[in-house]
Amino acid sequence: MLPLLLLSTFSLTSATDPGCIPRHSASLGFHLRVNITSPSDFTPSINLHYLSTAHIGPAQNRAIISPSPGPVFYQNGTYSDITFHTLSILTDAGSPPGVFPEAITYLPDDANNSSAVYINAGLPGSGTSLSRLWDPYSYLTILEGVVESTFVVCNRTIPYYGENKWFNVVNWVQATRDGTGTHIKIPEGCVAVNLIPECAFLEELPEGAYSSHEFAQEVRCYEDVGEIEWWRYSF
Ligand SMILES: *[C@@H]1O[C@H](CO)[C@@H](O)[C@H](O)[C@H]1NC(C)=O
Ligand SMILES: *[C@@H]1O[C@H](CO)[C@@H](O)[C@H](O)[C@H]1NC(C)=O
Ligand SMILES: *[C@@H]1O[C@H](CO)[C@@H](O)[C@H](O)[C@H]1NC(C)=O
Ligand SMILES: *[C@@H]1O[C@H](CO)[C@@H](O)[C@H](O)[C@H]1NC(C)=O
Ligand SMILES: *[C@@H]1O[C@H](CO)[C@@H](O)[C@H](O)[C@H]1NC(C)=O
């Protein structure tokens, strides 16, 4: 499997101008920013909004997006976590920040054939990582099986806040299979997005923190996601 993947990466890069992937940098910390991949957007636009949190209980947060920068995330794991798809994307929470880690995670919502995304303490990050280096772009992925999937942003209420307050929540949708093949069905009131890492400074941890940056990995991120001229790239 690996040699094949390497081969296809090689042929991709050799077939295109080396300038033809967006310029990237490396950093331990990053924000995640919305890149709309649906033909439609919300009004007003949510493009370039940030992955953020809505508190729903002690160390439990529903993943939402907001116009201002959300938490700084980092990718946690060893080399073997990369191989076995057991990396996770963490952020340092608590007060002062870094008292404990929270991970991007998801819980299936069977009624909608989609999963609600959370940023919670105490649950493993279940195979959440940035895309591997052979992918031309760096973006958040969940490696579960081989079926196609996408993140979506949906205009929804969050039970904790009652029925009158609307949030742009983040869900994750996997393709379903029927007689005519596999399809990703974007639920009503949702748009498909990728979450793209923008380099950010990962703060030192305070004295006595439960978080650790020992396994924080340097990742491929962009200095300003808003400056990427996607039309230049043809993958
Ligand atoms: C970002 O969005 C543009 C369309 O606005 C699309 O062409 C491009 O492929 C997207 N990039 C990623 C990594 O999702
Ligand atoms: C970070 O990765 C290390 C190495 O795999 C692991 O031992 C540790 O539990 C991870 N931390 C979290 C909070 O998942
Ligand atoms: C969920 O997926 C199943 C099987 O693909 C389909 O029959 C059902 O209508 C879907 N439910 C919703 C709410 O989209
Ligand atoms: C699931 O769908 C129902 C009906 O469309 C909606 O009210 C509910 O908010 C959805 N749940 C999520 C997590 O999007
Ligand atoms: C979200 O949906 C509610 C109910 O349909 C609507 O009142 C509200 O304007 C919507 N918000 C956005 C940002 O589209």
Secondary-structure topology with pairs:
Elements: H1 2-15, E1 25-27, E2 29-36, E3 50-57, E4 60-66, E5 73-76, H2 79-83, E6 88-93, E7 100-109, E8 114-120, E9 128-130, E10 140-142, E11 149-157, E12 166-174, E13 176-178, E14 181-183, E15 190-200, E16 216-217, E17 219-221
Antiparallel strand pairs: 1-17, 2-5, 2-15, 3-4, 5-6, 5-16, 6-7, 7-8, 8-12, 9-10, 11-12, 11-15, 13-14
Signal peptide: 1-15
Organism: Podospora fimiseda
Domain DUF7907: 28-199
Main-sheet strand order equals 2-5-6-7-8-12-11-15
Give the terminus-to-terminus CA distance.
21 Å
Uncertain stretches of 5 or more adjacent residues:
1-16
- In what range is the share of β-strand residues? 35-45%
Number of helical regions: 2
Radius of gyration from the CA trace? 18 Å
What is the mean pLDDT?
Answer: 88
Secondary-structure content class: mainly beta
Shape: globular
The unique ligands bound to this protein are: 2-acetamido-2-deoxy-beta-D-glucopyranose
Q: How many domains comprise the coordinates?
A: 1
Sheet bearing the most strands, described?
8 strands, antiparallel, barrel
Quick one: how many beta strands? 17
Estimated helix fraction: under 10%
**Element string (H = helix, E = strand):** HEEEEEHEEEEEEEEEEEE
